[in-house]
User: Fold these one by one.
Assistant:
Number 1:
Amino acid sequence: VATQRMVDEHVPGAASRFRPTSDAVSNCIGGETVLIHMRTSRIFKLNRTTSRLWELLVAGRDQNTIRRTMSEDFGVSEIELTSELQRILALLQQEGLIEAHTDLCQ
Amino acid sequence: LRPTLTSASSQKGYGPMIQLSRLGTSVSGADKDIAGLRGEFERVHCVKLPGLLEPGLFQFIQRQLANAKWYTRTHDWGGKTPPPVELCMEQNSVSALLHFLVSGDKFFRAIEQITGCGTIGHFEGRVYRMLPVADHFDQWHSDVGMGRLIALSINLSEQVYGGGALQIRDHDSLEIIHEVQNTGFGDGIIFRVTPRLQHRVSNVEGNVEKAAFAGWFTAQPGSQASVEYRLFGQGRL
């Protein structure tokens, strides 16, 4: 419990969700997840880890659920995953592929 | 055999079993639904995929088509009969997007499952318009060659057009086996490419033109590079 609290506290806004922007188009082609930003025409091929992250974002999972799921999937501790997830999410956000999404119902 | 005629609306009750969206392909049908499509395909060599393009995506593509450049394309026809003529869209980011959408693994596997065509590795297509004028027409042909397995046409027309039906006939008897109008917005049809069959699109009638994204699934291995090539340097959407 203490470790989980530490992980949650370590991630600013960890309970918030990100979702693909309306400019993002994705597909799995030849076994690889490919993202395209329709206005910049920039293409991003995702590695296995980021593919899984994208899959969970598309499914509407929040950051905590994503971290826990990926921790189980890849056998990496949540603490180890935290900074890497933050880095990738920041990159995707910077490229206009995802945006923060607030659940008003909660 | 009496030709079967399928209209856009007659299959709407099935809903979009297969749908291409911004975030990939969704296949919502149960095994028995896919089996039903496969049975229909075996029977008439053609199947309609209602709502193949997600409505928002269809509208987005529609808006982009308004700014596209078009050229008159006269097909290479060997000189025996007048060659088919259509307006063809110059390659741009919209054609790149359409290729990207139909080139997903999940969509390829769904088409393989419905048609039993073997492994699909690639899709090659174009966006065309057929106007309701005398010199825009198609001729009977088979499309056989270049590893083509199955043909796909997605309706991109702005309004419901008249005529413009896909007709399929037996190569030897010349009997029309199947006829289908694909006038539902974003609806798709897939049909068999084989030397045993020929097909054509009948003349468009009235005052509404037909627009479609059409091409072939081929056996060649998928080429990620070709997808990238289409997208890089093609301008912005």
Number 2:
Amino acid sequence: MARDPLSTAMSRRHLLRSAGILAGASVVTSLLAACGSQASAPAGSKPADSKPAESKPAAPAAAAPTSPPKPVVIPTPPPQMAAVPTTAPAAAPAGKMGGIFKAALATSPPTLDVSTTTAAASREATLYFMETLITYGEKYDIVPLLAEKWETSPDGKRVTFALKQGVKFHNGKEMTSEDVVASFKRHLDVTVRKSAWEMVEGFTAKDKHTVEFTLKYPTMAFLLTMAFPGSYPAIFPKEIIEGKEANKLAVEDFVGTGPYKLTEWKRDVMIRLRRHDDYHTKQGEPNGVAGGKMPYFDEIQLIPVPEEGARVAGLEAGDYDFAFEPPATDYDRLKDRKDLRLAIVEDSRWFPLVLNHSKAPMSDLKFRQAIQAALDVQAIGMAMTNGKSEFFRVQPSIWYPVSPYYTEAGKELYNQKNLDKARTLLKESGYNGEEIVYITNRNYEQMYRVAVATQDQLQKGLGMNVKLEVMDWPSQTKRRDEQPDTWHICSTSYVSEGLFSPDSYSAYWQSGNKNTFAKIPELDEWFKKGLAATSMDGRKEAFTNVQRIFHEQVVSVKTVDGHSFTALKANIQGYRPWYNPTRFWGCWRG
Amino acid sequence: MTVYIVRRLLIFVPTLFATALLIFLMIYLIPGDPSILMAGQEATQEEIQRVREQLGLNRPFGVRMIEWFWQVLQGNLGTSHFMAMPVSQALAERFPVTLGLAFQAWCISALLGIAAGVIAGVRHGRFLDWGVMLLAVLGVSVPVFWLGLNMIIVFSVTLGLLPTGGYVAFTDSPTDYARYMLMPALVLGITHAAVVARMTRSSMIEVLSQDFVRTARAKGLRERVVILRHGLRNAMIPIITILGIIVGELIAGSVITETVFNLPGVGRLIIEAVKRRDYPVIQGGILLVTVGFLTVNLLVDILYAWANPRIRYG
């Protein structure tokens, strides 16, 4: 750049330029000011219409004339929930009302219109303000929520729900059968799980507090679908929900019956919930999504903090009261802190190797058996968790021990670590060093780690030529579904399937599926029997056989169950770790 | 001058159009679509397909592209798949955050960078120069997220002075706004200050070796006057250029800072949108950033032409 050495001449030009920059800066400033005034709702604290933390001890017990929930249909009590370090005392405690609770969550829900998604983040956020007729209890059994009880006709084709009386929506209106019918109509229009409701023929309001469903054929699956928390049928007031299209609900449309009401949703910033003073069931023990749900806090803020390091730092610095799934590597460090309490949440997910049956050599049973025989599941778990055995479990069932469907069928084929057998099988399959493509992602770090450990075992132990292809989750899903000729093994994790919805597995394993592309007639039979069963015993028998065939035919290969951990401030009382939602009702600041 | 500005403005339009086309094509080359994330991790194919239909993503690529361009020409950026709100509204909510961050970071990098550069230039070849330049190289090289997380550990977790992240609008509470913005602005500012410092230093060294500086010293001016009035003033032109370039970079490059400090700005909005394949938001967001970048460039060019006739008539 040429420059005039004479400073007198320079100063004019220089002045001009400085002025230009100043002008540029002031444009930025004024733009900033203009935009700043547009930004309306603040993310900071806004006390809204809160009443001061007046102590309203758990007195107005019989506000809603609710009789104790009827016992559940499921006959055999499932095994005890695995021991978790829980902060909740056994007896119903009298907590302290008031305060603001801030929870740092990992993701922002894609939508709050739960009918249109099965995303866990949506369920996590909405279950504070929306409720269903029936739901899942602590041990993943079916329990009533807005229904007081239900009755199935002798032929099993009519199910009648008696609604709880005196239940108030957030807008003060009483919930009646009209609202339930309107909500179901809309749900069936927009739900992404349409085929799960295929057995429903119709439903009508019998009287103000009774709704009757007629089914095309008798099946237990009806109640299970009704209680299923993914894409669940939330009950809205009729006048709000009628005719609403999918994902066209505004914040003020989320008028539910839950213990908290939605007052603000700033996407990617915060979901603000205020106490619903007229909540219908405040007393009693929490029981899964049902039971006593005392809203102790005046306000709950659900804050998405995607960066896990920032989540932990915020908890340590006191910006948040709760951090969802901090990095496992922080466990030991956080464990020693007096002001924090950690809880391991079991039964969070399990990790399969999804095998592509439509592509050679994976189409050969012997080849699949070779992979199954070779794997050392314990080692995969250690690799997945950085050597922390607290964070995974090695067990053969495709259901968690807490699930009513848990069985050990086919367990001799799980975690064999038998390299000699594997090599023999591999030889018999005629495998000749072809490249095996394993697609995985890093959105879910644990899936990636399982994939790396598996690749290592297959390569070193069997000399298999396994190529890992890493992409992001949407790309991987698209490729899995639409380009089955380009992969052999695929990463995923199963979440609620292992707890309470065994039928969901059929979407991945039944003939005609576009996931494993498996075609195993015997498996199809048992899925059908499971779906058609009218008793829990019938269902259990069917799904025990599903698991047996899963292992025998190596539909996919099971690796470990993964646990997660959560961390919260030690002064928060009443928290009980559970799968989903995290449940901050019944919690208070001690 | 008017001819020059008109000419520049005419180039502006096709540049924008070409960028928009590129954005659209690139986004559709990424595999996966929003329905997969929207439907949830456990969703079956049937469920994903239903979401796809609800979002209108089952329609042919060409149709969607023409539709989008037609909308944009009418000033409508479309509706977000995930947020169920107009993209323009989502951007309007986020843009003040990004602009505020960029402005403060710009001030920090200008002040820090020029000061450090002048010191290094004056002490050219001495210990202080080496020290400052070592810091500048570190500043350019250190990843923003690393610096950000470490500052959080020191200032928030250990000392408890500042919040770890989040945002309060200036209009709600100016003091809280400052508390929440200080660390992100520092992190972003420091990393860019390094660039300014290096430019200032070399420019200062060049100017200070000129004859007129020797003359100034010879006529007995104080050293402070020589450096600031004669040296720095004449060294400003390349510094001004770099400060102009940085404005664009700060607006477009605040993504990581916004993620680390959980600031709801445009950068984070775009990143989240990419992860979710929220096409309208990605397109609208990048378009906005492009317009911002091009506008800043245009302004810098016009200022330049105004100040330097050789460019205007060249």
